[in-house]
Amino acid sequence: MQKDTYTHFVGIDISKITFDYAIYKEATILHSGQVSNTKQGLNKLRKQLQKMNIGLEKVLFCCENTGVYTCPLLHFSADQKINLWIANAPAIKRSLGLVRGKSDAVDAQRIGLYAYRFVEEARWYAPPRPVVKQLEVLLGLRRSRLEGQGRLQRQLQENKKFDFLAHQAMVKMYRP
After folding, report:
1. CATH level 3 topology of 3-121
2. What does the alpha-carbon distance between residue 166 and residue 139 come to, in Å, rounded to a whole number?
3. Those residues with Cβ within 8 angstroms of residue 69's Cβ, 6 or more apart along the chain or in another chain
4. How many CB atoms lie within 10 A of CB 91?
5. Packing angle between helix 71-80 and helix 39-51, nearest 10 degrees?
6. Hey, which of 20, 60, 81, 145 would disulfide with 6, CB 3.0 to 4.6 Å?
């Protein structure tokens, strides 16, 4: 991606309840704020950009992956067709060098500046196909079941080792 593709960069620090954001034009911060980690909150951010006469097609949004807390932003980016880059958290940290002070607002600023500086490395987020999402869920369930089965088998082996026959019989009854 080319720097001239985008006129503005939005760094977003995601937490469970809120998004802190920082809007940049090149390396200059224009505005920062906080919205709720919901579709309504993201609409407020979109309206803020509109109020500043910034078209979404010229904005690169950048965030770190925070697991399920990232989901509202992922859905919003798919609905609004925004340019979203989920950057690698260690790469952002390495790019900063040694820094002091940490807050969500400062992190949003650092992410926005990272997006501007390394825009050539940006990779747009693309939602997975539904079948891939289904496979992820099924693999997660399988992994959970196997871990549970492994715990029960280890418990049974420990019981055999120490000759707790009565307890061993109870564990065998509930073995999958």
Report:
1. Nucleotidyltransferase; domain 5 (3.30.420)
2. 35
3. 14, 15, 16, 37
4. 12
5. 50
6. 60
Please tell me the total number of residues recorded for the chain in this structure.
176
Mean pLDDT in consecutive groups of 10 residues from the start of the chain, 176 residues: 78 94 91 94 93 91 90 90 88 73 84 90 85 89 92 81 63 64
Q: pTM of the prediction?
A: 0.73
> CA–CA separation, 99 vs 104, rounded Å?
14
Q: Where are the alpha helices (DSSP H) in 36-164?
A: 39-51, 71-80, 89-96, 104-117, 130-161
Q: What is the pLDDT of residue 153?
A: 87
CA-CA distances (angstroms) from residue 110 to 10, 35, 60? 10, 18, 14
The ranges assigned to domains in the chain are 3-121, 130-173
CA nearest neighbour of 27 among 99, 108, 123, 117: 117
